[in-house]
Specification:
heterodimer, A: 316 residues, alpha+beta, Enolase-like, domain 1, three-stranded parallel beta sheet, 18% strand, B: Aldehyde Oxidoreductase, domain 4, five-stranded mixed beta sheet, 18 helices, oxidoreductase activity (chain B), iron ion binding (chain B), AldOxase/xan_DH_MoCoBD1 (chain B), Ald_Oxase/Xan_DH_a/b (chain B), Xanthine dehydrogenase family protein molybdopterin-binding subunit (chain B)
Chain lengths: 316, 734
C-alpha cells in the first residue's frame, strides 16, 4: 500500500469536485474491494475522499412507482428491504448470493457496481495486465482462464465483471444517477454504464473522472417470477462461473441476464423473444460471437443449462 | 523407556481421564484471544520492527539488477536483507530450495529480500519501491510433459519397483481387469495462521517465536542455515494455527526474521502474506497415477499395479502415492513404482497424509470401477480382498485390522442398502443423488518422544516437552495422560509445549503426534512414580496413585507431602524396539458419502458424510472427532475444488489467494458423523493408541467421487471433480 492522504466529503458535488481536482484521487465507500487492491498495490491512489458521511443511504419510492436506492445503502440493507424482496426478488437474491454476511454489511450499492475484476493476472502485479497497467499486455490470454470471459472480451483483455448485484440491476433496467465534478447530475441507463474492454480495458464504466454515483433507480416492478441461479464450485462465498438472472412471466415471456461470462452483466434483449421456446432457443442468440478459451469453453454449455434450470425453477 | 514387547495392563487402562471426551484445556485461551501466536508475542518481545518479504517475480532465472535506493530512503526503513547482505547461508536438511534466493531464482515468489521498518505498512510500502530486473531462463513447468522419460525413483537404497509374483502374466490372463489413469492436482495447505516468526537476538543466541510443528528438526535447520551452533538457537511455538505439514520445516519467515533482527539490531517479526504463501512455501505435489487391477470372476484380486508420477525441484522427492497399495488389499501378483520429474515449480513436500491422501483418491476410485465391472457391491469387493497380513510379507500380521468392520458397520449406519448399484437412478427434483464408499488407510508410525514431568509441593504436575499442538488437542491428551498416571485431576496438570528448551518429542506430523507424545509422557510419569515411591520407601511394584494420593498397602501420603518443598522431577523418553517390524501397524476407516449432482448445471453438493474409524485407543473422543471431521472437510476440498492452477508458460500457481484457491465453506459440509470402533493396540505403545488426524482424510476424496458417479453415471478421473468435467455427459436439456 502506498501512503495516501484522506479526507471526508460533506456533499456529493464537493466530493466529485475534490476527486476531479486532486491528482490520483479516488472515492472510498465501504472499501471492501478498494482496500484489498491498495494493499496489493493494484490500486495506488494518492488521496482518498471518503463519502460515507453523505447520507445517501435511503431507499425511497419514486413518482413512477419504482425505487430510488441511495448510493451508500449497504448490500445487506438493500437485500432485506421489504419492497425489494416483494417487487424485485431477483435483486435481493443476487445480492445474498454474493460475498459473505460481513462483507454485505459493509459493501455499498455504488461500490458494488464498481467492484473490479477477479482475474488472477490482474491481481498479481508481476504479470502483464492491460487493465492494471495499460499497454503491458494480457497474461491471462493463453494462461489459466477457467473463470474468465467468453463474450464481449477483446485481444487486450478477457476479464469478467465479477459481481452479482449488477446482473440483477441490468435485468431490471436500472438507471445509475451521478453528479459530475461541475455539479451537474446525469442518469446513465445501466445498459450503457459498463464499457467493453476493446483496446482500453482500464476504462470500465461511462463515469468521467470525479463523477460520483449518488443513487440507482429501479423502474416500476414488472411482476413475474424472479430467479437468480448462481453456479460456482463451492456452495457459498465464491464468484460465479455462470449466474443467470431471470424474470419469467406466466406466458413464458421474460428477461434474462447472465453474470460471470463477460466484462459486464450480459444481456441481449433480442434473444429474450425466444424465452418461451426454452434455453436452447435463447442461448445461441445470447452468446452469438462468443470466443471462449480452452479453459472456459464449458461456460457456453453451462449458460444454456443454467438458463434451463432457471426456467424450470420459474415454473415452480 | 524401551517399548519392545506388547503392552500389558498399565495405569492408563484405568481410563479415569484418558478416553474421556473432555474439553480442550487450551480452549479458553483461544476463545478469549489470550493464546499467544507467533506474530503477537508482545508479552515477551518489546518494540519489534516489522519485516516484509519480497518474492521473486519470475520462476527461474537470475537477478540481473536490484536497486534499493528508494526503498532504503523510504520512511521508517531500518534495513534491507538480501542474499548479498546476508552472506553465505546453509540450507536446512528439510528444505529443497533455499529460503533466501538470489541472485539465482529457484521458483516463483522465492524470498529474495526482507525490508525491515518501524511499521508493517512502512515495510510493505518500501518493499514495492525495490526495482529488480531479472534475466529469465526457461523452466520445466508441465508435469505431464516432464514425466515422459523421467527416471524411476528409489527410496534410499531400495529397488525402484516393488514386485511380488508376476504382475504382467497375472494381469494378462485375468478375466476382469481395469487399466485407468487418475490425476490429482497440486494442493495448498491453506492453514488459517500464516507462517510467522518473531526473532530476538541476545548476543550470539537467537530466540525464534514461530509457528512450527517439529521443533527439534527446525532448531537444527535454523542452526544449519544460519551457520551457528544448535545451542545458540531456541524455538518457541506454543500455539500453531494449523500446519497440515506446511510447518513441519522452517520457511522463509524464520530465517528472514533472524537475519532481519541481526541486521536491524532489534527484534523483528515477519509473516508471509496470504498471496505469497501459495508459491513461497511448500505444497502437496500433483500426481498422475496409473492403476491396473485384475481379478477372477469370484472378485478376488489376482494382480494389482500402481504407478505414480510426480515432480519436484532438483533434489526434491516424490509424492509417495503408491504406498497404501502395497498393504491395503490381498492379491498374489503386485507391482508399484514411482517416477520423479524435475519441475521448476515451488517446492513440493508433505501435506496431511502425504502419499495416502492422493494415492487413495486414485486407488479407491479404481476399486469402485472394478467392483462395477465384476457386478459386485463395492463393499463386498473390498471385503473379499481383505488381508490380515502384509501382502508382500505374509509372515507379518497387522497388529489390528478392522477394515471389514468399519465398512460393514458403516454400511448399516449409513443406510447403504438404499444405494442403487446402477448409477443415475435416484432423483430429487432436478438433482441426481448417489452414494459412495471408500476405504481409509494410514500407517501408525513409532517415533521416539521425550518429556519431563515435575511434581511440586502444591501437588501440581507440570509436563514439559517440545511437542506441539497444531490445533489437534495435544495439550489436552497430554494432561489426561499425566492425570491418569499421577492420580490427579486434570486441573492439577500444567502442560508446557513447543519450546526447544524442553525434551525432544515426536512432534506433530504423520498422525504420529498423539500416540508417541503421550507415550513419552507416560514414560516420564513412570519414572516420576518410581522416584516418589523410592522417596517414600515404597516398593514401586505395588504403589497406586489416585485421588492426589500415593498408596502402598495401608500406607498413604498426599502427593503434596511426597513432593516436599523441593519437588520431584523426572524425565524419560519412549523408544521403540522392532514391534513395528514384527507387526504392520496401521489405522483403517470406512468413508461413506451421499452426494447430489444437479442434472442440468452439474453442480455437486455433498449431502452427508460418515467416517467409521478403527485406530487404536481413542485418547479423547471429542478432540479425535474434531480431527476426523476436519480431515473429512479437507477431503471434500480435495474432491470438489482444491486445485493450484499451474501457468505452464510462466511457472507459478496462478490462483494464489483464498478467493482463487477455494477450500470448503460451511455450506459445503451439511452433515458429518464419526464413529470410532472399540480398539486397543498393545503393540503401538503403552497408550495402545495410534492416530486419526490423517486417517480422517484418507479415502474421503474417492468416496465423494464415487458418490458423484453413482449419482450421475459420469466417471471423472481427474480431480477435483468440478462441474465442467461432467457437464457435457449429463442428461440433455429437455
Amino acid at each position: 500500500m502506498k501512503p495516501f492522504s484522506y479526507a471526508r466529503a460533506t456533499s456529493p458535488a464537493e466530493a466529485a469536485a475534490a476527486v476531479a481536482r486532486t491528482p490520483n484521487a479516488k472515492f472510498i465507500a465501504g472499501g471492501t474491494n478498494l482496500l484489498d487492491l491498495m494493499k496489493l498495490q493494484i490500486e495506488t491512489p494518492a488521496h482518498l475522499i471518503d463519502v460515507q458521511d453523505l447520507k445517501l443511504d435511503r431507499i425511497e419510492e419514486t413518482k413512477d412507482g419504482g425505487l430510488r436506492i441511495g448510493a451508500f445503502v449497504s448490500n445487506s440493507d438493500l437485500a432485506s428491504d421489504a419492497r425489494v424482496r416483494r417487487d424485485y426478488g431477483v435483486l435481493s437474491r443476487a445480492i445474498v448470493a454474493g460475498a459473505s454476511g460481513q462483507l454485505r454489511n459493509k459493501a455499498t450499492t455504488a461500490g458494488n457496481l464498481l467492484q473490479r475484476t477477479r482475474c488472477p493476472y490482474f491481481y498479481d502485479t508481476n504479470q502483464a495486465c492491460n487493465k492494471r497497467k495499460p499497454g503491458s499486455g494480457c497474461a491471462a490470454i493463453g494462461g489459466f482462464s477457467r473463470q474468465l470471459g467468453i463474450i464481449g472480451t477483446s485481444d487486450a483483455c478477457i476479464a469478467t465483471y465479477p459481481g452479482d448485484m449488477a446482473v440483477a440491476m441490468r435485468l431490471l433496467d436500472a438507471t445509475v444517477e451521478t453528479v459530475r465534478p461541475d455539479g451537474a447530475a446525469r442518469a446513465i441507463p445501466i445498459a450503457d454504464f459498463y464499457k467493453l474492454p476493446g483496446s482500453t480495458p482500464h476504462i470500465e464504466t461511462a463515469l468521467v473522472p470525479g463523477e460520483l454515483i449518488t443513487a440507482v433507480t429501479l423502474p416500476k416492478p414488472i411482476g413475474g417470477t424472479h430467479i437468480y441461479h448462481k453456479v460456482r464450485d463451492r456452495a457459498s462465498y465464491a464468484f460465479a462461473l455462470v449466474s443467470v438472472a431471470a424474470i419469467v412471466q406466466r406466458d413464458g415471456s421474460g428477461r434474462v441476464a447472465v453474470g460471470g461470462i463477460a466484462p459486464k452483466p450480459w444481456r441481449v434483449e433480442a434473444a429474450e423473444a425466444a424465452l418461451p421456446q426454452g434455453a436452447a432457443a435463447v442461448t445461441p442468440k445470447l452468446l452469438a460471437g462468443a470466443k471462449p478459451t480452452h479453459d472456459n469453453a464449458f461456460k457456453v454449455t453451462l449458460v444454456e443449462r443454467t438458463l434451463a434450470a432457471a426456467l424450470i425453477e420459474a415454473k415452480g | 523407556m524401551k517399548f519392545d514387547t506388547p503392552a500389558g495392563q498399565n495405569p492408563i487402562d484405568q481410563l479415569k481421564h484418558v478416553g474421556k471426551p473432555i474439553d480442550r484445556i487450551d480452549g479458553k485461551f483461544k476463545t478469549t484471544g489470550t493464546a499467544p501466536y507467533a506474530y503477537e508475542r508482545h508479552d515477551v518481545v518489546a518494540n519489534p520492527a516489522y519485516g516484509y518479504v519480497v518474492g521473486a517475480a519470475v520462476a527461474k532465472g537470475r537477478i540481473s539488477r536490484i536497486d534499493m535506493a528508494a526503498a532504503k530512503a523510504a520512511p521508517g526503513v531500518l534495513t534491507i536483507v538480501t542474499a548479498e547482505s546476508a552472506g553465505p547461508l546453509g540450507k536446512g536438511n528439510f528444505n529443497t530450495a533455499k529460503l533466501l534466493g538470489g541472485p539465482e531464482i529457484d521458483h516463483y515468489h522465492q524470498a529474495i529480500a526482507l525490508v525491515v521498518a518501524e511499521t508493517f505498512e512502512q515495510a510493505r510500502a518500501a518493499a514495492a519501491l525495490i526495482v529488480i530486473d531479472y534475466a529469465r531462463t526457461a523452466g520445466r513447468f508441465d508435469l505431464a510433459k516432464e514425466l515422459k522419460g523421467a527416471p524411476l525413483h528409489s527410496e534410499k537404497g531400495k529397488p525402484p519397483v516393488t514386485k511380488i509374483g508376476d504382475f504382467d502374466a497375472a494381469f494378462g490372463t485375468a478375466p476382469v481387469k481395469l487399466d485407468a489413469t487418475y490425476t490429482t492436482p497440486d494442493h495448498s495447505h491453506a492453514m488459517m495462521e500464516p507462517h510467522a516468526t518473531t526473532a530476538k537476538w541476545d548476543g550470539d543466541k537467537v530466540t525464534l517465536y514461530t509457528s512450527n510443528q517439529m521443533i527439534a528438526w527446525s532448531k537444527g535447520d535454523v542452526a544449519k542455515t544460519l551457520g551457528i551452533p544448535k545451542d545458540n538457537v531456541r524455538l518457541v511455538s506454543p500455539y500453531v494455527g494449523g500446519g497440515f505439514g506446511g510447518k513441519l520445516f522452517i520457511r522463509a519467515d524464520v530465517i528472514l526474521a533472524a537475519l532481519g533482527a541481526k541486521a536491524a539490531g532489534r527484534p523483528v517479526k515477519v509473516t508471509l502474506t496470504r498471496p505469497m504463501m501459495f508459491n513461497n512455501t511448500t505444497h502437496r505435489p500433483a500426481t498422475i497415477q496409473r492403476i491396473r487391477i485384475g481379478a477372477g470372476r469370484d472378485g478376488k484380486i489376482t494382480a494389482i499395479a500402481h504407478e505414480s508420477g510426480s515432480g519436484d525441484l532438483p533434489g526434491g522427492g516424490p509424492e509417495t502415492a503408491v504406498s497404501q497399495t502395497r498393504l491395503l488389499y490381498a492379491g498374489a501378483n503386485r507391482l508399484t513404482s514411482m517416477r520423479l520429474a524435475v519441475v521448476d515449480l515451488p517446492e513440493g513436500n508433505a501435506m496431511r497424509a502425504p502419499g495416502e491422501a492422493p494415492g487413495l483418491m486414485a486407488l479407491e476410485i479404481a476399486m469402485d470401477e472394478m467392483a462395477e465391472k465384476l457386478g459386485m457391491d463395492p463393499i463386498a469387493f473390498r471385503v473379499a480382498n481383505d488381508t490380515q497380513v502384509d501382502p508382500e510379507k505374509p509372515e507379518r500380521r497387522f497388529s489390528q485390522r478392522q477394515l471389514v468392520q468399519c465398512l460393514e458397520q458403516g454400511a448399516d449406519r449409513f443406510g447403504w442398502k438404499q444405494r442403487s448399484a446402477k448409477p443415475a437412478q435416484r432423483r430429487d427434483g432436478q438433482w441426481l443423488v448417489g452414494m459412495g464408499v471408500a476405504a481409509g488407510f494410514r500407517n501408525s508410525m513409532a517415533m521416539k518422544s521425550a518429556a519431563r514431568v515435575a511434581l511440586d509441593k502444591k501437588g501440581i504436575v507440570t509436563v514439559s516437552t517440545d511437542m506441539t499442538d497444531i490445533g489437534t488437542g495435544t495439550y489436552t491428551i497430554i494432561a489426561q495422560t499425566a492425570a491418569e498416571m499421577m492420580g490427579v485431576d486434570i486441573d492439577k496438570v500444567v502442560v508446557q509445549l513447543g519450546d526447544s528448551d524442553h525434551p525432544v518429542s515426536a512432534g506433530s506430523g504423520g498422525q504420529w503426534g498423539a500416540n508417541n507424545s503421550t507415550a513419552g509422557v507416560y514414560a516420564a510419569c513412570v519414572k516420576l512414580r518410581e522416584a516418589i515411591a523410592q522417596k517414600l520407601g515404597f516398593n514401586s511394584a505395588d504403589v497406586t496413585f489416585a485421588d492426589g494420593k500415593v498408596r502402598s498397602g495401608n500406607r498413604s501420603f498426599a502427593l503434596t507431602e511426597a513432593a516436599g518443598d523441593a519437588g520431584l522431577v523426572a524425565e524419560d523418553a519412549i523408544e521403540y524396539g522392532d514391534l513395528g517390524k514384527t507387526y504392520q501397524q496401521s489405522t483403517f476407516a470406512g468413508h461413506f458419502v451421499e452426494a447430489a449432482v444437479h442434472s442440468l448445471t452439474g453442480e455437486v453438493r455433498i449431502r452427508r458424510m460418515l467416517a467409521v474409524c478403527a485406530a487404536g485407543r481413542i485418547l479423547n473422543p471429542k478432540s479425535a472427532r474434531s480431527q476426523v471431521i476436519g480431515a473429512m472437510t479437507m477431503g471434500a476440498g480435495a474432491a470438489l475444488m482444491e486445485d493450484l492452477a499451474v501457468d505452464t508458460r510462466f511457472g507459478f500457481f496462478v490462483n494464489h489467494d483464498l478467493a482463487g484457491y477455494e477450500v470448503p465453506v460451511h455450506a459445503d459440509i451439511p452433515h458429518q458423523e464419526v464413529m470410532f470402533l472399540d480398539e486397543v493396540d498393545p503393540t503401538s505403545s503403552p497408550m495402545k493408541a495410534k492416530g486419526v488426524g490423517e486417517l480422517g482424510l484418507c479415502g474421503v476424496g474417492a468416496a465423494i467421487a464415487n458418490a458423484i458417479y453413482n449419482a450421475s453415471g459420469v466417471r471423472v478421473r481427474e480431480y477435483p471433480v468440478t462441474l465442467d468435467k461432467h457437464l457435457a455427459h449429463l442428461p440433455p436439456v429437455a
